[in-house]
Amino acid sequence: MFKRKALAWELLLLMFLATVLGGCSQSQPVSADPEPAPIEEAEEQFFQIGILQFSEHPALDDARVGTINGLADQGFVEGKNVSFDYKNAQGEPVTAGIISQGFATDNVDLIIAITIQAVESAAKVTQDIPIVFNSATNPQANGMIESWEQPNTNVTGVSDLNPVKETLELIMEIQPESKVVGVIYNTGEVNSVLQVDIAYKLASELGLEIVESTVTHTGEVGTAAEALIGKVDAIFLPTDNTAMTAFHSILRVTEESNLLVVGSAIEFAELGAVAAIGFNYYDLGYQSGIMAAEVLRGANPAEMPIQLPTRVFYAINEGAAANIGIELPQDLVNRAELKY
User: In this predicted structure, what is the pLDDT of residue 19?
Assistant: First the structure.
């Protein structure tokens, strides 16, 4: 009887060991490396972008929209992997400085600077955060870059340096008898100063005399226009932010005096100038948006040459021409891409 019980216990023990050892045989040996845990997909990096626009008018608004769309088409979409903090300085340099300092304090990943004043303000407060600009004519003027080919700073972008010679020639095409051309601009805008300097150098070659009327803020623009009445045959407007912002003040004066106005931004024609030659500021912004995307992917602004828009547009305002008794040359009408 005892033997039978012992045998039964041995059988139970063997069954227990078989069960345990069988379970262990399905597990990984202790000496083997454990199976690596699945790697979680890395989260896409999220970027904060500060947008500083110096003043508000159609050309700069278009440039801002173009920049955002250029970034989006490169995969940097608001709410998905980027956020935009848009600030407008409303033409006030002090405000631009405060906005720039705020971006620096927030340590944004990139600053989009629209106009030369915006670039200056941003470059003063940070040499580390990349700055991509558009609608700024000459960023080299105040040392923001070392050269157009090799910026060697944290600043790069797309210049809106317009073909000044072609703009003056446009005045002569519309009104061949023009001999004296007035120019209204803000002496504090280095982009405007550069264009006026070019105009002076070209004047003798084209048989023209340049007469300037300068301002320091928008409140002086109307008075500056009045100062040119009776002294000039036409007015040339460079890509001056102050003059464009207060363009209605110029138009009020020139329409009363039947004075031809030609601008260096196609938006001038849309606002009421007889004609303009320039770039499409949406395209300008879009081009800078592509550059901004390159920077977000790791490109170094110091090694990115300053770009220029590749296409010049002619714009005319046939209603404005009729208002002051000017008949536009048919050749100009035919080649104008934009007509108002």
Answer: 37
Whole-model pTM: value is 0.68
Superfamily of domain 164-278+313-339: Response regulator (3.40.50.2300)
Evaluate whether 323 touches 255 at the Cβ level (below 8 Å): yes
Q: Which two tokens stand for residue 271?
A: 């606002």
pLDDT tens digits, residue range 55-92?
A: 988 889 999 999 999 999 999 999 999 999 999 999 99
Q: What is the location of CATH 3.40.50.2300 in the chain?
A: 47-160+281-303, 164-278+313-339
Q: 47-160+281-303 adopts what CATH topology? A: Rossmann fold (3.40.50)
| pLDDT score for 13 | 36
The 3-state secondary structure of the chain, one letter per residue: CHHHHHHHHHHHHHHHHHHHHHHHHCCCCCCCCCCCCCCCCCCCCCEEEEEEECCCCHHHHHHHHHHHHHHHHCCCCECCCEEEEEEECCCCHHHHHHHHHHHHHHCCCEEEEECHHHHHHHHHHCCCCCEEEEEECCCCCCCCCCCCCCCCCCEEEEECCCCHHHHHHHHHHHCCCCCEEEEEEECCCHHHHHHHHHHHHHHHHHCCEEEEEEECCHHHHHHHHHCCCCCCCEEEECCCHHHHHCHHHHHHHHHHCCCEEEECCHHHHHHCCCEEEECCHHHHHHHHHHHHHHHHCCCCHHHCCCECCCCCEEEECHHHHHHCCCCCCHHHHHHCCEEC
Phi and psi at 105, nearest 5°, equal -65, -40
